Prior knowledge:
Distance between the termini of chain B: 25 Å
Order of helices and strands of chain A: HEEEEEEEEE
Radius of gyration of chain A: 25 Å
CATH class of chain B: Mainly Beta
CATH topology of chain B: Porin
Radius of gyration of chain B: 22 Å
Oligomer: heterodimer
Number of strands of chain A: 9
Strand content of chain A: over 45%
Shape of chain B: elongated
Structural class of chain A: mainly beta
Number of strands of chain B: 12
Number of domains of chain B: 1
Distance between the termini of chain A: 87 Å
Largest sheet of chain A: 5 strands, antiparallel
Structural class of chain B: mainly beta
Strand content of chain B: over 45%
Number of helices of chain B: 2
Helix content of chain A: 10-25%
Helix content of chain B: under 10%
CATH architecture of chain B: Beta Barrel
Amino acid sequence: MGRKTRYGLVILLFGAWFAVGCGDIPTCLDVETSLVKINFVDANGKARAITLTALQAINNPEGFPEYADSTLSRLVVPLNPGDTTTTFILQQAAQTDTIGLSYTVKAILISPECGLDAAFDKLDTTFTTFKKLKILSPTIHEEVTVNIEITL
Amino acid sequence: MFLLLALGSFAQEVASPYSVPVDSANSKKQYFPTGIRIGADILGPALQLFDERKLSYEFTAEVDFSNYLLVFESGYQEFAEKNDQVDYRMNGTFSRIGPAVNFLSRDRDLNSFTFGLRYAWASFDEQVTGAVTEDNWGAVPVDFTIRNNTSRWFEMTTGVKVRLWKGLFTGYIFRFRFGRGGSVPEVPFEPYYVPGYGLAARASTWGFRYYVMYRFPWAKKPVKVKKKN
């Protein structure tokens, strides 16, 4: 075996050593969220609580039982990944309010092992019965603390 | 690095049938191409023996201009996986073109240690079937076919090629890929795997390929040789 051939083989083995573990390792880290965060405030911007008897959404017959008969100043609810609009119905003892939200949604393959997820963005309102509603952030992301502020 | 220095010093001691020293007669010709080196990646087909999800073929061609090279690479990749959660399939082609500089410009056997830049582009199809599951909304079925996705990116490369026997070379190349952009699919699905690049969600990726190449010369390459004292 010639000297150059030996050099070549050494380089071949050197490269093969580097090749080990050079693949794409899947990480099942779910970085997306479907949760829209709604704060209720008074005219001075301070948190103000409402008492819900029920929270429902169109095309979701089961509703959100975890919010039944609860008093809260912050509502965190998931958007429908199967549509680009979601309408929430907030039932209180004396009145019922609705919030219609529009957004973009696209499917993301985290990895074949981890499955699919949905990414939401460009949040907006289509209609609402609340007198004053402001979009503070149209981005649906875990790091966003408030998407919508409703002044009661 | 020791290996490269050893190669360089070894090459200078022995007359080479592949090059001629630069002198006043041929100094103007040193920037003329003297051959084309073409090759194929052997790592991609080898890795398929261990991972049937990926199929990868890649070819390369390079022409020399003194200690510079013009490199063109092209390939085909498939990625497919089906499990209980998702059925994903991708297939497409990619190409790269760019310059490289050879730091072993004095090597009379035309071995090379290069640093290069590439502009790369890919065209690919994707198909995904599965479901997105969200709290309170259940499982929403997903069934998309995306045709003619395109993507482009840049690469920095470094690699080594060594002459094994006559015109036969072997060597490897490392790639750092970055700056990816591309078309936005009409369907609401984010591209997952880009041929030649890897996972689309990553801002940068690393790559490694192992080539077997053959050089077809049409002239002996003028090579600068150190003068002995």
